[in-house]
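Quick one - first record:
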Amino acid sequence: MNLQLILFGLINVVKEIDRFCYGIYQYIKGLDSDAISVISLIFTVITTIFIIYLTILTLKISAKPRLKVFLKKENGAKFYPSEVVKLRYQLQNIGHWYGKPAAKNVTLYINFESSFEPIEISYGSNLEIKNHRVFRGKKNCKYMKAEGIYLTYWEPGEEVEVKVKMPNEKGNYCSWIAAFSEEGDCGVYKFNIPVTKKEKSGKHNTHT
């Protein structure tokens, strides 16, 4: 019975739309060519605006978090062989122009080449969450994990600190971070870490 009522209602709606379109047709038919051109242009503009609105709305609804991760190197700090340093990575939710969704339950996999020796990872609002567990990854890399991070667009961001021993030899090395959230993949961020020979003056640099 309910299905019959729905079908009956749909038929009436179609009839009303048909009657409306026929009325529009009769009205346009009585106009001259200039008036028809103006009406056609107005209809085209309205249709285009509506399509653009629907496209933006779809983008906004389906938007995923967009993160930015960078390595903080204060005062031009340098890295020396076998030195133990604290690397600070800054994590921000920069959003999109069409949508700025929160990044929920973000997990970071902070990777280092095998010649590094990761020691400790600290994160949280005041770096109060600490972990010493080191995992082995692809191509024998070493990585540490930070998880449960929540980022919104309007917040200043989150800092993750990794205490690590530099490689024993100078050279250009790489660190990279793979980021994931409840909403999906948030990208991979690569960082060049040059390790240089220490100056003979014996001056010590602090890396933060």
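second record:
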Amino acid sequence: MVKISTRFNQDLMKTFNKGIFRKGRTVFLLLCSLLVILGLIPILFADLLGFDEASVSEGIGLVVAGILLYPAMNLLFRFTQSWMNRSMSLLGDDNIMEFEFTETEFIARNVKGTTYEGYTKANYSIFWKVTETPESFLLNISRSQSFVVPKNAFVEGSMEELLHIFEHQLPPKVFVPMKKVKR
């Protein structure tokens, strides 16, 4: 049996959320690049392609939009993350998260003083994907719901025991261990 107990860690959640939005940021960066390229065409080739002044002005607008949209999206992401951390009462430093892993089941307990206690008990088939990162394990029960289990908060058992449970209880496509990691 492996037990992990920790307080809610906002920095760990930020890292987790950055991973989720990485793909979206890449697509958004490509969109911004496309706007810049489409805007540069009438500016650079106005004489050659016969663009009028209105087309050149629209091109300048597209370039400016393409350049400003990406930083604006990053600021919006940071604001949203900060707002979520402040507005969700379960995401405070006084929130205790406990995880227990046995050979047959997973238990997650979330306690916030005397105001809230959440409890999840399930077998390992509930996991859609389990991903190992340098700091934690991301236990996805769906594409949008996850438990973030830190590696530095073992109360009972060891990293090797937890990896053994994951390797034997989860199908290979569900468990994604880090490659060649020094533990």
